[in-house]
Each structure stands twice: as C-alpha cells, then as structure tokens.
Amino acid sequence: MTDQLTPTDRSADEPSNAFAPPSRADRVKSEIMAGGSVTELNDDELANGWTGFVAMAAIAGLFVWLAFVNIWIFVFVVGVVISIFLHELGHFATAKWTGMKATQFFLFFGPRLWSFRRGETEYGVRAIPLGAFVRIIGMNRMDEVDPADESRTYRQATFPRRLLVISAGSMMHIMIAIVLLFAVYSTQGEITAQDEPIVMVGAVSPGLPASEAGIVADDQIVSVGGIAVTTSIELGDTVRTFEPGDIVDVVVIRDGVEQTIPVGLGSNGAVPADDPLFGTALLGVRSYSPALYQDHGIVGSAVNSVTDIVPVSWESMKGIVKVVNPVNMIGHLTGTNDDLSSRPTTLYGVATVSDDVGNSGGFAGVLYLLAVLNVFVGVFNMLPLLPLDGGHAAIACYERFREWRSGTKQRYFADVERLMPFAMGVIVVLAMLMFSGLYLDITQPIG
What is the DSSP secondary structure assignment for residue 18, as one 8-state letter? Predict the structure, then answer.
C-alpha cells in the first residue's frame, strides 16, 4: 500500500497526460475492482429499442414457463432475483443518500438487453444472470472520472459513508432474512431439529409396485401389513420384513380419508448384487417426514427472527470454511467425500433442492430456505477479499487506520492496483468452486 492523492489534489506541474484514455486492461482492472461495468453510454446508445423489448419478453416468458413446470423452483428463483435486486438497492439508496453519484443500476451482468435513463442513472437488465451491480463513480484510484464529479466519488466520501454504502448490500440480505423468518415463524412456526411422526410419500417410481397399486405422491402411509410406521426408516425396515411377491395391505390417508391399498411387493434390483439390500422386498416410493414446527406468537416470532440470525450466520461461516477447503472439493469430485455440508454447490443445485423443500414444507419451507440463503450470501459477501464488498470495506478500514496512525487530517488512499493479483486469485478460486459445484449439481443432484 502507498499514500496516494486524488486527482483534485495533484500538483499543477504534474504531466498533462495523467488522464490518458485507459487501455482495455485498465478497464478490466477497474471493472473487477468496481464490481461491474464502468463503460457509460449516451442516450442514443441505450438498449431500449424493439430488440430490448423482445429480450425482456423472452425473460418474462421463461419465468412463466418455469411457473408451469415447477411452482416451487419458480418461487425460489423469483425470491433470489428479488434478493439480488434489494442487495443492489441497498448500495444505490445509501450512495444517493450520502451524495455519491451512481450512474448505473443493472440486474445481471454482460451485454445490455434493455435499459433506460432517469436523471443521472441508467437502469436496465443485462444478459448473464450471475448477479447485479450498481456503478458508483470513483470506487478507487483506478477509476477515472470527470474532475467536476470528483467530490461525488466513493473514494472522496468520509469513512463512515464509505463503510455504510459498501456494507449496505449485505445488511439488506440480513434484513431480508429477518423478514422471511418472521413470516415463517408467525404463520407456520419455527422449524425444529425434529420431524413429525408421520410418513409422507414424496414421489412414486413409475412401473414399481406402489405406482401400479395406486399409491400417489402426498399420501400419508400409516401402516404396511398391519405394522404402523412413523418414519421413513421404519417404512423401509418394515417393507423388508416381507418377501418379494408378498401382497400386503398398505394403509394410507389421502385427502383426510383413510384407505387400504393391497400392494404386491417387488424385488430391489437397483443396487449392486453384493449390496445387502439386493433382492429384498421393494415398495417403490420416496418418502419423508415433515419438519416439526414450534408455534410462536407475534412477539416471539419477531424476537426469534432476529436472534436466530446469529446461529445461522455462525453455521454459514463454518460452511464457508468447509467448502473452500480444497481437500473437501477434490474429495467430492473424486467421489470419496459424501458430506453435503462441505460440498460446493450453485444456485442451480439449491433450486433443485427447493422443489423437495416446497413439497415437504410448502411455501413456508421455501421462504425458510431463502432466509438461510440470504444470511449465507450476506456473510460470504463481507469476507475481507476483493472483489467482494468485504474487500472494499477492509480497504476503507485500512485507510482509516493509516489516517489515525499518521496523526494528521490528511486523507490516505490505498493503492488498490497492487491488490489486483490477490483479487484475481480470489476470482479464480470462486470460479473453481462455481464450476465444481455446477458439475456436481448436474451429475450428482442433491435433491
């Protein structure tokens, strides 16, 4: 790190080419440090013509299609998009409130699909759904701005204002989580570590005995062959007390009505021949026990929705440490590690899990999943690593410490360009985690 002055503080005899047009490499560096595009367009260049509207209509059509294909994944994806939007709204609102100039507010990255300008800000949607960004001018020394706007840059703001703006996105995630937890706790109750003592059918395998006999998803299995079952483990153990080909009475509750369905059990041939389960009796259902919820009043829901953020944040921190451990990642890729708590995953993987969560826990279950995800993202985003928001917060704290240690009122500006190799290393690690997680999510689905 070195002491640096802002452009307005440079001496008058500095060479006139100090503000030469930035090279492509300079723009890439600046975009990495700024967390988004630094290229501004004129009004006649905005993507608001018919092509933009076609692109937006296509995106809307994809959401409508997803709603018909799987309602729970649709709810989850919409919740994620709203969370991303509110994250950037946190940065944008605090930047405007503190007097900074925000010139872009985009959902997603990549090429512009559609945009419009209101005042000094361009709003719009881009093509790659991997996040969003707000462009605040002068995020660091590498960001060239019009000298007339220097007083409104991020780098010229006071330490409290810089820290507020850069932390606002993660604070918004925590606020979202609190609201979602309150919605769940006040309507359905707080989820506990226990399950209800009932067995529900999550899905039936086509062509297997349960499907052929007429058992369907959402049936509650009460007993098999006169033996009561209260957990999925009990269901499997009970079925295997019979022999393949036996006809047993399976008592189910469907739409509040108890029914007895005779089922001719099949033989389990889906496992290797040396597996102890090979050849045992098979029903052919995927079952689960719904989570047990503890009821709360309005006050209790409000209190617990706030206090529960602490343990969820702690679990998120432990999860981050496990996932970034290269030994764990290699173990999952080679098949020697099956611990889901240390497995890298992506939003695609979590979205597939939301289907199971929605089927078992309903709307409240998906909201709870979104709450946990928001806490995780809020905590992860504040890690002191560039180009994450936490990296910018760490730089602001470092600058403030150097100012305090100097004992003068002169501002200290960190030379962030020296951190570029470190930032690129972080990006490489994140890319490895993303592609590894995507590979595992596709080849070894969690749900």
Answer: G
The pTM (predicted TM-score) of the whole model is: 0.79
| Residue listed under structure tokens 């093509």 | 127
Quick one: DSSP state of residue 226?
Answer: T
For the chain, the C-alpha Rg in angstroms (whole number) is 27
Angle at CA of residue 297, ends 294 and 303, nearest 5°: 90
Q: Is the preceding omega at residue 387 within 30 degrees of 0, hence cis?
A: yes
Strand ranges (E), 237-338: 247-254, 257-264, 266-267, 281-282, 285-288, 291-294
Domain residues of the chain, as ranges? 197-289
- Cβ atoms of residues 131 and 108 within 8 Å: yes
Spacing of C-alpha 71 from chain mean position: 18
Kindly tell me if the per-residue pLDDT of 7 is higher than 60.
no
> Phi then psi for 105, rounded to 5 degrees?
-140, 100
Place of tokens 């820290």: 163
Distance in angstroms (rounded) separating the CA atoms of residues 306 and 286 = 35
Is the Cβ–Cβ distance between 190 and 132 less than 8 Å? no
Q: What is 197-289's CATH superfamily?
A: PDZ domain (2.30.42.10)
Which range is least confidently modeled, 4-8, 61-65, 81-85, 205-209? 4-8
